[in-house]
Specification:
It is a single chain. The chain has 461 residues and is of the alpha+beta class. The protein has two domains: 3-123 and 151-309 and 446-460, no CATH class; 316-436, Alpha-Beta Plaits, CATH 3.30.70. It is built from twelve helices and 19 strands. A ten-stranded mixed sheet has the order 12-13-9-8-1-2-3-7-4-19, sandwiched between helices. Strands 5, 6, 15, 16, 17 and 18 form a six-stranded antiparallel sheet that branches. The chain is globular and about 70 Å long.
């Protein structure tokens, strides 16, 4: 029988009502199914670890209650398993939130699976690590370290499902693993059935970014028109036992599922289509077929797999000094001239008011920002002198005081700069740096347990 995978979110901060039509459609079909919330990114995880430092009852997805409240009761009532990496840095705390929501619904016996083992900070210095991508060769010191998390595969999630979990809460796992786990459990796929595992991983890859495969992040008016972006339907992936996939969405929702949207998502973040590395399988997309078989229905076949890699990706996040931003607007006659003069004044002031190692960038938003370089080459291009321009200063330094001083120089343009400046804003935050390593699979101890609400010490939440 076909298994249905519904997407409820594609990132932290996604629409909190997106899962409602998905769940309604899963219930209407009455087939075996699961609902997946993918809410975790590398810097999202670093932010979660920082939040956990401030409060033992933080560190998980901030919108967890808003995401689950509209659908939890229906999912529990109709046997729709929920899986989510919304545990972030504090899966136990997220489990407690889920348990509390279930109690409010009169369902105190909800079975919540908690996946552990991705956080390897304590063992980091003792592991055989291979550097993959990093700005520096050395590991950050203990005083700089924010997080170190392995991208787990689907096996511990399957363990949670085998324990009878109705909701599975994880921290860092490979995003497609959230979708693969219920397929392995339902179909009984073997862990060396590489082609089927690869199909399951790609079902997850198609669904992991939420509405991206159904028209979100695709629309380009006049080039790639998509209707109904305000009511986008998040994807439902139909998976058959032999690995055939069909991507669709709930009827009556906005967006579109086409060959083009599916192909864009298939290639999203895939460095090598012939060898897409995941913890569970290496995927080969070179023989894939993508075919429109009906309105908002796209079939995907021909996915192949090879044995899983011996090492797992680990992302290490560490403190990287301070960064600051400040902005001021210029509008009306000769606005561009005044914005350019303001930028010149700032460069001259920072040359003697800030240390030489201060990294800085000035953009004139409305003229050149996204595609400009740090020296502001594109800001000299001819443009309308009248209009609405916003000068943005971005700076970085190891010490906050120099970041504050630099952005204060922009604030001073209110009176010490060109005429008509206004709307100044400035803020500072700690910069996060990331490095990627490969860790031996055998050095990672990942497992699942059923969570017992109220049984954990306060400081572990």
């Amino acid at each position: 029988m076909t298994f249905l995978l519904g997407s409820g979110a594609g990132f932290s901060g996604d629409r909190t009502d997106a899962a409602v039509p998905v769940v309604a459609e899963l219930i209407r079909r009455g087939q075996p199914c699961a609902l997946v919330f993918e809410t975790l990114g590398e810097r999202t995880l670093a932010a979660a670890h920082r939040a956990l430092r401030e409060s033992p009852r933080a560190g998980f997805e901030p919108l967890l209650e808003e995401l689950l409240s509209p659908v939890l009761d229906d999912c529990l009532e109709h046997g729709i398993t929920i899986l989510g990496n919304f545990g972030a840095a504090n899966p136990a705390g997220a489990c407690e939130v889920v348990a509390g929501l279930a109690r409010q619904l009169g369902r105190p016996d909800v079975r919540i699976g908690r996946v552990q083992g991705d956080d390897i900070r304590a063992a980091l210095g003792d592991l055989d690590l291979q550097l993959w991508e990093a700005e520096t060769q050395a590991l950050p010191g203990a005083d700089q370290l924010i997080s170190a998390n392995v991208y787990l595969g689907a096996a511990p999630l399957c363990q949670a499902l085998e324990l009878g979990a109705q909701v599975v809460v994880t921290g860092r796992v490979a995003d497609p693993a959230l979708f693969l786990a219920p397929l392995v459990t339902h179909f009984g796929w073997a862990w060396d059935d590489w082609d089927r595992l690869a199909a399951g991983i790609m079902a997850g890859h198609l669904g992991e970014c939420g509405s991206q495969v159904s028209g979100g992040y695709f629309a380009d008016p006049g080039v790639k028109d998509v209707a109904g972006l305000a009511t986008l339907g998040y994807p439902i992936i139909e998976v058959e036992a032999e690995g055939r996939l069909v991507v669709t969405k709930p009827p009556g929702t906005g967006g579109a599922v086409t060959e083009q949207t599916v192909k864009e998502q298939l290639l999203y973040e895939v460095h090598d289509p012939g060898a897409y590395l995941t913890p569970d399988v290496v995927v080969d997309l070179s023989g894939i077929s993508v075919r429109q078989i009906g309105p908002d229905r796209v079939e995907v076949t021909g996915i192949r797999g090879r044995p899983a890699p011996a090492r797992l990706k680990t992302t290490v996040c560490y403190e990287g000094g301070w960064q600051g931003e400040a902005e001021i607007s210029y509008a009306g006659p000769n606005a561009l001239g005044r914005a350019r003069l303001a930028a010149q004044v700032l460069r001259e002031r920072l040359a003697f008011r800030a240390p030489a190692e201060l990294r800085q960038r000035l953009d004139i938003i409305g003229l050149a920002s996204v595609f400009d370089d740090d020296t502001g080459t594109l800001q000299q291009a001819p443009a309308a002198t009248e209009g609405d321009y916003r000068l943005r200063l971005a700076v970085e330094h190891a010490e906050r005081r120099w970041v504050e001083r630099a952005t204060q120089e922009l604030l001073a343009l209110y009176c010490a700069g060109p005429a008509g400046g206004g709307g100044v804003r400035r803020h500072f935050l700690r910069r996060v740096c990331t490095a990627s390593y490969l860790v031996r699979r055998d050095d990672v101890d990942a497992f699942a347990t059923l969570f017992e609400s109220g049984r954990l010490p306060h400081d572990t939440l």
